[in-house]
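Contributing new complexes? Match this layout with acetoacetyl-coenzyme A.
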Amino acid sequence: MDLSLSDDQEQLLRMVKEFAEREVKPLAAALDREARFPSQLVARMAELGLLGIEVPVDHGGSGLDTLAYVLAMEEVSAACASTGVIMSVNNSLVCDPLLKFGSDEQKEQWLEPLAAGEKLGCFMLSEPEAGSDAAAQTTVAVRDGDEYVINGTKNWITNGPQADTGILIAMTDREQGHRGISAFVVDMNGKGVRRGHKDDKLGIRASHSCQIFFDDHRVPVSQRLGEEGHGFKVAMATLDAGRIGIAAQALGIARAAFEAAASYACERKTFGKRIIEHQAVAFMLADMETEIDAARMLTWRAAVAKTSGARHTRESAMCKLMASEVANRVAKNAIQIHGGNGYVSEYPVERHYRDAKITEIYEGTSEIQRIVIASHLLRG
Ligand code: CAA
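Output block (do not edit by hand):
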């Protein structure tokens, strides 16, 4: 198996490493402390082509593959996990379904500005009573001539407070269950779209989320993404892509926590020696590094599968499950290695610990990933 990177991937990696190290990392602690949306970093990501990495150049993107996207996501997230998720939502939850399911007109009107970073996107699937059970949609889109009239509430919508464009999943025929769900692309500044107050979160505090309310919001039929009744599949296929992005975000968080712990362990002395010379600490670090590499291999495998065009539901679920759980273990042990210093905000590991938690929850909890993986076993 050849694990070497292509010239394009190497070049992107070098560019993103420099951006992350010089421009993102110095701001991360303050952005988190102030729960401040990183507008200037989002503008820089647009300039650097990081908001539509896999979108072809003739549609305004960078025309690279999923592994390139994963490499960039890990770097940005290692510097600032909040900036990482803003980037991942735009790339994999918004550009990706428009690229896969959009008509030529939809690509021109909606995808191109998103891929170029002129507009920011959000993905609206979750509802107050439809989180893990994504088919239990109560937001309705009722056909009225050449339009749909949309009513309902969406929850925890990442990028919701800032988004210009949204992918919306709604029920068009309740009788049909998941086969009665359809997908739409919507103008977030349109009449009848209202944003709730910003969620006050444990981690990724510089990435904002909120409720979105639809009150008789009208969209023309031309804004339906894919066939009527195919929206659940659009949502699931979108999450297959999104979960790779979140795995890469988790890898970034884990790596940042590991690097902070390793460097601290090489300096801090107790009982007359550096703490890395105590086997308890050395073994913790060895396990952390090994687990991060294992998670990275699963993430790269899923990325290669996606680029090949093959269905990658299982691979995406596996890498998201593994990388998010590794990030949580690594961040927890990074605090343990730092002792009291790990518990205060002077050191970055308490932020990594808070940021890691969400990766086990959004885009499908760890329990949902296990259901997805086990369902493949059942099917044989
Ligand atoms: N690709 C294409 N089709 C798929 C699919 C996939 N990955 N997964 C399922 N389907 C199809 C099935 O083949 C089936 O098709 P048929 O009607 O032809 O039989 C249909 O969809 C229904 O499948 P299931 O019976 O498996 O559906 P289910 O209701 O049992 O649910 C689930 C499956 C995996 C639990 C799903 O509900 C799920 O993934 N839940 C988690 C939702 C989630 O991840 N939410 C995250 C919100 S987004 C977010 O977090 C964004 C953010 O802020 C960053």
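Reviewers usually confirm one structural detail per submission. For this one: The chain has a mean pLDDT of 97.
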